[in-house]
Hints:
mainly alpha; Growth Hormone, Chain: A; 0% strand
Amino acid sequence: MKPNENAMVKSSTLWVVSLSVFMFSFMISSVNIALPAIQAEFSASAVLLSWVATAYLLASGVVLVPAGKLGDIYGRKKIFTIGIVVFSVFTMVTAFAPSIYWLITFRVLQGIGAAMSMATSMAIIADVFPVNERGKAMGVTVACVYIGYSVGPFVGGWLTSLLGWRSIFFINAPIGILSLYLSVVKIRKEWADAENERFDMIGGVLYGGSLSSMMVGLTVLPGWTGIGLVITGIIGFVIFAYYLTKTRFPILDIRLFYSNRTFTFSSLAALINYSATFAVAFLLSLYLQYVKGMTPQATGIILVSQPLVQALCSPMAGRLSDTTKPAVIASSGMGLTALMLLSFAFLTAATPIFIIVCELMILGLGFALFSSPNMNAIMSSVEKNQYGIASGTVATMRLIGQMLSMALVTLAFSLFIGDREISLANHDTFLRSTNILFLVFTITCIVGIYFSLNRSKATQQ
Length: 461
């Protein structure tokens, strides 16, 4: 391939992948802003409201690993494109949801489509860009994720205030159509480095069933049903791990975890980081609207400060990880994140808005320093024929972390608020549960620093 042609392929592929991940992150952050409006229309309890976010994450988590393997076997572009179609169709359908239960159902289908594209997006970037340019490319992609998170609260708040929460889903439809067109036209090559393997259906069922059981169980703790589901999920994962060692073409190459310490510790760091941070926007959105009495639009403007800083700093962090050990950069980012989570543990009804904005901006810098370098370390630690499964695995770690984060929120709401709507009457109870959650997230993040630093000692990554 000629140099100019190669540069064009890299540029167009980066644009397509970046637009798609922007779309997915925009969807997540804009819906968070609309949750009070959704609760008002459907009279949903706090626990049921949390499922609007959790259902999307659970469906994505179940599908990510199988989708990554399908991409390795049948073609990453093919799975990436199908995912965009599924996501776009059910994004439009969600706008017509007649009840909270239908809304949650459509969010599940949305999550399946998003997972198919997310599982293959970073693998496609790794396929197109050489090792010495990969960190920069992934930094741009991660920046677009957080541009989506930045635009989402502002646009979502504005749309919810003026046109209602359903307009958020309508506006995503043309973005999906554009992403589909660009993926078909601009990504002209196909990658299927494991095309001689067969898809492991049994492994997929074991994985999906175990993950679903565990995540649903966490959201209904501390009841006996929750305990039973969590135990069932753990047993399922033990059976799944044993099965992986016996099958010829496993859906997940478990050898990656016990033979590749960089991959293992980087993946664990991602899991812990997202479990400690994902619920921040969810909790602060509710805090600003219920405790501070702010409008969705004003709330969006405040929450935009964190992902905006991350979007601006992620390319720099990605470039830095091409020349400096990614683990060092990622660990410093996780340290900043832990400090800011601790500060949020002391939120009160009187906390000044400018303090919250400053803390969110520093949190955004911590996220940026962690995300791109950590992803670069993971993708650079595996062979080319493992790009799809590595991309799917790290995306799964991210989604499981996000689900754990929301599961903790749901558990806290169940214990402190119960089957009631969040309102001014119980905002003291809501604040108490929020403070405890941020303290738990701080401790979790500190544990993650250990894995990030230990990876640095174990390898050159």
